[in-house]
Amino acid sequence: MGNKHSAGFAEASGAQTGEFGRRAxxxxxxAGEEAHDGFYxxxxxxxxxxxPFLIRMGVAAQDELDELSQHTLPQEMxxxxxxxxxxxxxxxxxxxxxx
Length: 99
Description:
The chain is an alpha+beta fold. 47% of the residues lie in helices and 18% in strands.
């Protein structure tokens, strides 16, 4: 693959040389695009699920997270002029057969 990050993925997964691949994807999640509403719902759920962790780590207080989840996130992501791209990397490979 010629990329040190790809080699790291392959090594971590136990994939053999030549049996590893990757493909980058870009998804337009801007307002009005097909993927927008589903991505928004996913982000709302992820934000709520992350609350306990963020509070335990001491990086945010409950009232701050409530404000972000209930006001800031919807206000920004549901705006008509919301524009964003989501970059995704798909990685695949095969591992040796165990004997």
